[in-house]
Design a protein that fits this description.
The complex is a heterodimer. In chain A, α2 (11-46) packs across α10 and α6 (143-174) runs parallel beside α12. Chain A contains twelve helices and no strands. Chain A has one domain. Chain A is mainly α. By secondary structure, chain B is an alpha+beta fold. Chain B has one domain: Cytochrome-c3 Hydrogenase, chain B (Orthogonal Bundle), CATH 1.10.645.10. A three-stranded antiparallel sheet of chain B has the order 1-2-3. In chain B, strands 6-7-8 form a three-stranded antiparallel sheet. The radius of gyration of chain B is 21 Å and the shape is globular. The chains are: A mainly alpha, B alpha+beta. Chain B: It is an enzyme of class 7 (translocase).
Amino acid sequence: MIDWLHQPMTFGTFVWMALFAVLLLVIVLGFVTYVIYFERKVIGWIQLRHGPTQVGPFGLLQTPADVLKLLLKEDIIPKLADKPLFILAPVLAFVPSFTVVAVIPFTDAIGFTDTNVALLIYIALSGITILGILLGGWASNNKYSLLGGMRSAAQMISYEIPLLLSVLGVIVMAGTMNLRGIVEYQQQMGVWFVVPQIIGFLIFLIAANAEMNRSPFDLPEAESELVAGYHTEYSGFRFAIFMLTEYVYMFAMSSLIVVLFLGGWLPPLQWVPGLQFLQAVPGIIWFLLKFVAVVFYWLWLRATMPRFKTELLMKFAWKVLLPVSLLNLVATALIKAMV
Amino acid sequence: MIRTEELTLNVGPQHPSTHGVLRLVVTLDGERITHVEPVVGYLHRGTEKLAEDLNFTQIIPYTDRMDYLAAMLNNYNLVHAVETLMGLEIPERAEYLRVITMELNRVASHLVWFGTYLLDIGALSPFLFAFNERETILNLFNELCGARLTYSYMRVGGVKWDAPEGWLEKVAQFVQRMRQKVDEFHTLVTGNEIFLSRMRGVGKYDAETALAFGLSGVNLRCTGVNYDIRKFKPYSIYDRFDFEVPLSEEGDCYARYMLRLEEIRQSLRIVEQAVAQIPDGPIMAKVPKMLRPPKGEVFTSIEGARGELGCHIVSDGKDRPYRIKFRRPSFVNLQILPKLAVGLSMSDFVAVLGAIDIVLGEVDG
């Protein structure tokens, strides 16, 4: 697939690319469906419960049933809401979430773009989602929604900065912003970036968590404080789209972490003699394994941690994460210049 | 210059963190609270007025429904007042059964508090762990009196049912298990940095303020005032047991959290001793069929799960009270909320409200 991107486009490659894009859409939707199931199961096990068991074998049809229910519900728009904005908000939040998936290379052959600014595209597009959330909070004409939207905007803007700065270390080392190039650099280096860039990795994990609005950074929808935050007034299909956005970002962010820090499709421990046979396993399997581990981490965190409070959240971003990520960048640059 | 406006936010009566139908009219400046006005009464059933038309045994089920998380203590609160007024002598075994059930109920109530409080501050799992243990207590009560929440177990003069065979052994086993669980809760929650940052120094007040607001229970003891009625004015047979009153000087949410968990431990100690000492014998004193306390007044108070639980009865010698008044600790404790809330953010506000530990059935009476 990647090869096609470097050839002149023919009708044949166009059709194939379009088909693969549809396939990716289906995969992402399938991921969302089953990550919700997986989340409920994992959290259930952590909490000494079973999770869904009733709908379909092992409860496997629970999420499809839930989604169906949401789709069939009456579409409610509050009377005093700003109608055009209320309708626009979920779309604005949702479209970028799918777009960012395009920049992620799943293996050296499977990927939809091969651009030198992949990371920038990701960060820039995901920024648009904040607009959708803020708009949703504003247009609902509900005070809880407004507070949720406000928190969300403040949080996502604050955490985007350490998010980007923590990746700069990786970019400085690899010398490219091309995500495939970053993985290839890790292959040459022999170790994944999680080792030399451990500080960057940790900051990225925390900031990514805040970007995704997931517990313990789920302040924008803090149930016990703001009822449901920015989507309090949303129901049915529009609510489903907000939820979908959240989980698609989980897909994208987990993929990005795998690519940036965990060596993408590379097999592990290649510097250990005798483990070279691991290369026989297809790269996509390695990618998926790492991906699932990262996804599990989000779910685990959600079942374990209490929520941050607002002031601390901001303090943490600006006074801890930002200086540390800057230091990490400077240190990386110095070491790179000396070696 | 930007013109800013304050935001009036109606928190409740349907809101996830008001633990029932409490309504709070909150004025916000950004996310900072400038004014809070609790509006109570959504669950008011007029228990005290209704009780004037009921004889004393008939009032017992109504007390179940006040603090429905600690119904045993409410039952006892009423029968204790009537017994004091009548000057009844209670059989030993009944007193022991009362102490065991009351302390178990205190543990159950604190477990609900622990679970829901952590839910308030955003941790999901401890709630399930706490309810798992509470379930054991509810099952024990179910076996004893056939009800899980509204027990109506106590009677004037004793208790309704004797412990079934093997019940006391089960209680003893539970005590052992619960001890480990308290340690587990501490490892699970107490050391968490996020948790500490939300607890330490939040909702702080001193002993003077606490006394001025008439706070009792953990809300008072967290400021260092050693006032536990079980020790201060021992009732029932509490003077026979060896236990401590956990105290703290901090006066913040963290102190209240630690004290409640410590109280679970102390209650378990009492239960353990009571189970070991309990004698055989009758469970009901000889009381007349129709209870007619002599003319007069009585005020008794006991240490409820949430504070000083009092009962004031005015009797005119008939089989029903002339006037009955319950001192409901949740209602009194809630009064400090508007004072504490000023200047807090919504996140802290939820933590402070939760730490007061109110039950709306009791607040509204």
